[in-house]
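**Polypeptide and fold**
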Amino acid sequence: MNKVHFVHGLNCKSAASQALEDILTAVEGLSGECFFGYPLIPTPEGKYSIDATLVSREKGVVLFDLVEGTDVGDYAARQDDMANKIEAKLKLHRELVRGRELIPPLNVITFAPAISNIQKLAVPNHLLANEKNLGEILSRLSWIIDSDDFFRMTLSAVESLSSIRKGRSKRQVRKPDSRGAKLKNIEDSIATLDHRQNRAVIETVDGVQRIRGLAGSGKTIVLALKAAYLHTQYPDWRIAVTFHSRSLKGQFKRLINNFCVEQGGEEPDWTRIRVVNAWGAPGGNERDGIYYEFCRLTGVEFHDFRSARTRFGEGDRAFDGACQAALNAVTTPPRELYDAILVDEAQDFAPSFLRLCYNMLKPPKRLIYAYDELQNLSGTSLPPPEEIFGRDALGQPVVTLEGDPRRDVILQKCYRNSRPVLVTAHALGFGIYREQPDGAETGLVQMFDQPALWEEIGYRVQEGRLAKGEHVVLARTEETSPKFLEDHSPIEDLVVFRQFADADEQNAWVVEQIKKNIEEEELRHDDIIVIHPNPLTARERLGPIRRALFEVGIQNHLAGVDTDPDVFFRTETPSVTFTSIYRAKGNEAGMVYVVNAQDCDGSGVGLASLRNRLFTAITRSKAWVRVIGYGQGMANLIGEFHSLQRRNFRIDFTYPTDEILKKLRIVHRDLSPHERQRLEQRQTGLRELVNALERGEIAPDDLDTETKQKLIKLLGGRN
């Protein structure tokens, strides 16, 4: 079975590229990655791209000089130039060099499928092939490789992603088994992109492209590299990258800058490629946003957060209403500003924002949006594009992704969270092992409406049947949760739940652990995130830990408060990041402390939202996570975690029926502040009634018979 994966970049030689792909597909026993129009190499004359590059376990690195037509020109000189450029690039990676020699074999073949008489044009020591003899030439090339790791290092060097994805500062480790050393090994192991990620970065379509995947599947990196790739290939294009979490801005700028320098030899032109907020406001380029720009462009009324909240409602409704109002107010199509817009975290936006972006694009409307269908665990996701973008005058969808797999990319592997970390997040987020409350039919907090979603995100059925009303046992596989993410440490060290007597004891333990992380375990300050689940109380509740760290000489900051709203990790000085849950979204670190986790337990309304916060906090970790707190709420969470541990991190439950799912959505729903206030008023009134009955101020007979019967029925028939 052929195992060569093809990634189509831009090389303007489509006929020769297709002929080469057909032949490589037919070669038996050949595996690896073949890139067309990639990599890009910076030179004094400007960027230089290779027509096609094959990185193969059996053949090493094979460069193809593709010829359309019958004029091969001075192909020997082209081959020498190509080989010298790639060899110099690869020799920058010390692990690929022995002495002065490059370890993986490097060969160059000029492939001219339109030429029949190859011998007539042959030049000694320079390989020239057509469709008849390419297979025979490839059969003479061989590479005896020691390990799959070495192939991955070679592939990483060709892709140039090791340096593009490098951390915020150089990692220095002295102890081979320290946490810092383990984290370095993890980062080195994910320096390459998998095939689906490569395709998403390099392959460009005219029109809308959708990228889906779990948290940690690489969506943000793919989107940043794709924006940079388009910028290097089309420097005159006007490109915008936008997102929901403002703290992602620095990460996007760093990734785009690294790619452009590595692949194009110069920094990006930030006037042509913009990393810009979604909402925006007056006040200059740094405060600009897509929605604000749309309003400025069309002359429609702009709503800031306060006015949008007053007019359209709380939470997501504010921005949705503002975008929808702007779209409705436009009487003539707006001037098209951008050649491409890339949207990250699209699950946090209403469809109205995507339509607004679409309206700002020049034909052929290159809108690329990435989202995590399960970020909120509700099973609800963005509507299909046919619904988002509507239908034309003939009733046909304005946008459809059918017919071209490049338009709908699903990233299946999770490269951030190890299997134990991710399954813990799902088990606690859904309340899989939560104790069943009295009178309830299940302990579950929430669940996907569609059971098949479990398999789409990388779980496999171990026992039972994945269907509503059926018992099922689910587990993740090595294919979707790579083993190296958990092999570096004992499982009991990857995820730790711990209960303390009170907040003071919890806070003292966190300070002691962070001090140890930095001084003994070789973790950097920016390897550590401390997350408090409640955004409204983060400053107050995190204050004691922060003060204690300052007292022992460890710098730290509260993201978005001590820093600009667009900054999450400080780069100018070593500093541990403290954050509320919403600013944590989209970011990651080796060691994550989730403090005051007891706040994520409870019952009744709002519980689904609390568990979503816990899920999001746990999935920020790319190595170790500590979930800590105090009180009965923490004891409850620990009980759920121990149940998961006993089942070897498998999801074991009875899938709720449609009737139970409907009840869960009502019982654990989230409430707006107005709804919550109204509920509290009613609960206060009910408590006053109960107290009056207890004190004898009101007799049961004072209540009319119909009201008493309804109360008894609603409370489960209990007297």
Summary: The two ends are 69 Å apart (CA to CA). The domain at 200-411 is CATH 3.40.50.300 (Rossmann fold). The chain has four domains: 3-159, 200-411, 419-664, 674-714. The chain has a mean pLDDT of 89.
